[in-house]
Inverse folding.
């Protein structure tokens, strides 16, 4: 047979024109060399043991790969079959995790009486307490009388927010899986307690109160990100430990009915929702999570890591963030990939983190408001899904001020769809669902956490409308000293004009009437032109624009919907004096930060949300002017603009302006 095969190969090679035929393949040895490989007895022993090793290795790989599904099946948190998951090491970890579950257990395993729960959902009676903290600034705490006045007050067990004990990020309050990563992140300073801000923030967040922290800045952004990532991971790992513990007990006892104390799940698996404005922000969050879970003694397996950093890494097409003439605030906000349409699911295990998991197989959902809104959809849409939001227990919003400039309606829409009853059953075990999910009380247990650089009315309204947490809420602010006007270098004369309003509902109409009667006539009579009118709200912008068109006033516009070609054309017309007035919206200026040359006079129809926008625009008055010539800046404000005034003037001076009986205040160049 060998000779026939060899002859056949040579004939084939000659037929195809090959001069040399390939050498014959070496035949694999079937005999065992006893000198090199041992005696036949040893070889037989090894061959008998090989299937057992292969089976053990296969079982171990299956355990690691399916551990997540065993803890929570694809659709929900179900009890699963933990035959290949739960072992003595799990028992040891669960035992050690009991000490870090104190706050978790007190908040989520405490049963609210029906009368208190219904009264909290219908009509809440609150009390407010104010105090100062070195890490949080001025704190305003709201508690509900229905809870604090009950015979067995739950807040008494949670603790007073002002006197909460100090925590250690490598101590019993934090899951052991995070200790190694935290120590590596802070290896240089060697501090396990973190900074004062991190210590204070984690204490109140770990008590599961709602938190609004309005002091986020470029300097403490990383500190804040680390804290809420620790809190999110701590919650996910505690949930997993509880499920594993109960799985083992149920398997050992096999009761006819699941006891109430072992109800540990919701309708679906996702427990934490993190909303950020840009892909770059999401990349920083995932990077922090991976670093926190990376134990120096044990390798962390990450699924789809390369794909994630390719899709969420730096966008080379975006050059605006690299331009040196842009402000430092702009470059910090718009660094990296600024795409605002994304969503991603993360599943977290002991040694494995999977990215891009299906939402119903995820522990954490990380998304932008726009990216999630496209899935949630609107009433009447054919394809829409929001069941994965039905069991969210922690909702975190970072950079709320930037999201305000994107589209605040998307954020409101998402919060309106949190903790609704699911339309379908996603492989959920009803016997393991907590009673407060079945009773539609899940909003009373959900924790909401908001981070922004300052407070603003939309954020306060969101907190008041959607903060049903029975543990109460905290608002953390700091008085603003000096405001943004102290960085103005141009020679300007600032004039603040009070607009009297009859009611909060009539503010927009009263402001428009004042502008058309008292401000616009003088602008039209000004033959020199080069006047910029800054209008933050787009509705006010369209209203003023229509009025100018109706009265045949020459002007150009710069808004968020203006094309790049029209932006260049409008800026050129304004600079050369072909158009005496330019209308500017805040969203346009926030996202573009174009230098407006030829600006000689500035009118603020209303103060901007961002105080630095006031200073940046005022400094543009000196670009084409004599420094000895004072340029006017007119600002309209009402008694409802307290926070916007504080961003510009500082808290103390803003309060003086609001309470002063004078109609006009003039501030000269300092």
């Amino acid at each position: 047979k060998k000779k026939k095969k060899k002859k056949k190969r040579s004939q084939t090679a000659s037929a195809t024109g090959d001069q040399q035929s390939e050498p014959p393949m070496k035949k694999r040895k079937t005999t065992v060399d006893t000198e090199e490989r041992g005696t036949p007895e040893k070889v037989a022993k090894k061959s008998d043991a090989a299937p057992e090793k292969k089976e053990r290795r296969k079982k171990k790989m299956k355990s690691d790969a399916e551990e997540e599904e065993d803890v929570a099946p694809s659709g929900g948190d179900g009890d699963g079959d933990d035959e290949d998951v739960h072992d003595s090491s799990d028992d040891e970890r669960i035992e050690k995790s009991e000490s870090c579950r104190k706050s978790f257990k007190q908040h989520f395993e405490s049963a609210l009486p029906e009368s208190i729960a219904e009264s909290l959902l219908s009509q809440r009676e609150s009390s407010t307490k104010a105090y100062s903290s070195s890490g949080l600034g001025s704190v305003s705490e709201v508690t509900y009388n229905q809870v604090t006045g009950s015979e067995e007050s739950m807040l008494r067990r949670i603790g007073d927010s002002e006197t909460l004990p100090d925590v250690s990020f490598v101590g019993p309050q934090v899951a052991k899986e995070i200790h190694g990563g935290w120590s590596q992140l802070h290896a240089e300073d060697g501090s396990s307690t973190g900074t004062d801000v991190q210590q204070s923030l984690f204490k109140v967040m770990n008590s599961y109160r709602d938190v609004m922290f309005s002091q986020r800045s470029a300097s403490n952004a990383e500190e804040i990100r680390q804290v809420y990532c620790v809190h999110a991971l701590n919650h996910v790992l505690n949930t997993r430990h509880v499920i594993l513990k109960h799985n083992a007990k149920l398997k050992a006892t096999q009761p006819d009915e699941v006891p109430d104390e072992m109800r540990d799940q919701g309708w679906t698996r996702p427990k934490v929702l993190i909303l950020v404005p840009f892909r770059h922000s999401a990349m920083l969050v995932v990077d922090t999570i991976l670093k926190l879970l990376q134990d120096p003694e044990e390798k962390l397996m990450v699924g789809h890591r390369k794909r994630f950093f390719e899709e969420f890494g730096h966008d080379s097409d975006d050059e605006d963030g690299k331009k040196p003439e842009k402000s430092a605030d702009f470059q910090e906000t718009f660094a990296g990939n600024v795409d605002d349409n994304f969503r991603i699911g993360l599943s977290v295990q002991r040694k494995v983190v999977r990215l891009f998991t299906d939402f119903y197989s995820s522990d954490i959902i990380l998304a932008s408001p726009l990216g999630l809104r496209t899935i949630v959809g609107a009433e009447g849409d054919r394809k829409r899904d929001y069941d994965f939001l039905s069991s969210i227990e922690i909702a975190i919003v970072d950079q709320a001020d930037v999201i305000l400039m994107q589209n605040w309606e998307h954020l409101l829409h998402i919060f309106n769809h949190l903790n609704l009853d699911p339309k379908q059953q996603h492989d959920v075990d009803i016997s393991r669902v907590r009673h407060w999910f079945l009773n539609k009380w899940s909003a009373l247990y959900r924790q909401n956490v908001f981070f922004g650089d300052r407070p603003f009315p939309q954020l306060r309204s969101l907190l008041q409308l959607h903060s049903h947490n029975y543990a109460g809420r905290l608002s953390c602010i700091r008085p603003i000293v000096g405001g943004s006007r102290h960085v103005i270098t141009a020679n300007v004369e600032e004039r603040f004009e009070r607009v009297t309003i009859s009611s909060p509902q009539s503010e927009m109409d009263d402001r428009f009437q004042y502008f058309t009667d008292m401000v616009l006539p003088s602008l039209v009579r000004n033959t020199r032109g080069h006047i910029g009118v800054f209008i933050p709200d787009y509705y006010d912008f369209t209203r003023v624009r229509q009025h100018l068109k109706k009265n045949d006033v020459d002007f150009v516009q710069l808004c968020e919907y203006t094309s790049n070609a029209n932006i260049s054309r409008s800026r050129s017309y304004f600079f050369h004096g072909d158009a005496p007035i330019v209308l500017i919206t805040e969203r346009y200026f926030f996202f573009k930060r174009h230098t407006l040359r030829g600006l000689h006079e500035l009118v603020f129809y209303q103060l901007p949300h961002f105080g630095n926008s006031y200073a940046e625009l005022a400094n543009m008055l000196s670009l084409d002017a004599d420094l000895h010539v004072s340029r006017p800046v007119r600002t309209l404000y009402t008694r409802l603009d307290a926070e916007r005034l504080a961003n510009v003037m500082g808290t103390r001076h803003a309060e003086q302006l609001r309470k002063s009986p004078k109609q006009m205040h003039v501030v000269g160049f300092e």
Observations:
- Residues 12-47, 63-76, 78-90, 93-97 have pLDDT under 50 and may be disordered.
- The longest helix spans residues 221-253.
- The chain is about 40% helix and 15% strand.
- The two ends are 104 Å apart (CA to CA).
